[in-house]
Design brief:
The protein is of the alpha/beta class. The protein has seven helices and seven strands. About 35% of the residues lie in helices and about 25% in strands. The longest helix has 16 residues. The chain is globular. The mean pLDDT is about 90.
Length: about 190
């Protein structure tokens, strides 16, 4: 079994990655690192710099993950700043901002970056969804209470996670399959 450090403090991302990587005989080992994350509207750029910093700290092959959340009717807000916005906003704040939008599309762009001494490899996938008109009663991150990746647009991300499901089944783990398939062939 291949072993790889995964630099994350996010338990949900770790579980998601482990569930896929195990199928490819890859063991992800969580490594919480303190990395100054640069601020940029370019999610891939942020993830690439984070991977370089993680490799420099560990001196071992490492994987990092980053996401950008986009509300199309708000010109891509909150983008790479979703983690910070979720500490400032409530689900009601998101709902007030989106209440009158005609374009209710939302997405998350998931980026994984593998880094070793010679290679930096980026994997990304965008999952499309919609902004709900009501806040889910299921606890979760504020954006996850008002965004749905449910094909029928009824269940929030929080609802799906509470039921032990990924945001939208296989679509949100596609990036993990792409990565694990690539690494298993290395």
């Amino acid at each position: 079994m291949k072993k790889l450090f995964f630099s994350t403090g996010n338990a949900q991302k770790l579980r998601m990655g482990q569930s896929v990587c195990e199928r490819y005989n890859i063991e992800l080992i969580q490594q919480k690192l303190v990395i100054d994350e640069i601020q940029s509207e370019d999610c891939e750029y942020v993830a690439r710099r984070k991977a370089e910093a993680a490799y420099e700290l560990l001196g071992q092959p490492v994987l990092v993950s980053d996401d950008a959340w986009n509300i199309y009717g708000l010109n891509g807000f909150p983008g790479t700043y979703a983690k910070s916005i979720n500490t400032w906003f409530t689900a009601d704040d998101y709902l007030r901002l989106t209440r009158d939008l005609d374009d209710r599309r939302a997405s998350v762009i998931q980026i994984l970056v593998y880094q070793d001494a010679q290679t930096q490899r980026v994997f990304s996938h965008e999952t499309m969804g919609t902004i709900l008109k009501e806040i889910s009663d299921t606890p979760g991150q504020p954006n996850e209470q008002v965004i749905s990746f449910d094909p029928e647009g009824k269940l929030s991300i929080s609802d799906m996670l509470a039921d032990g499901r990924s945001h939208s089944a296989e679509d949100t783990v596609r990036v993990w399959h792409d990565f694990a398939e690539w690494l298993s062939k290395q």
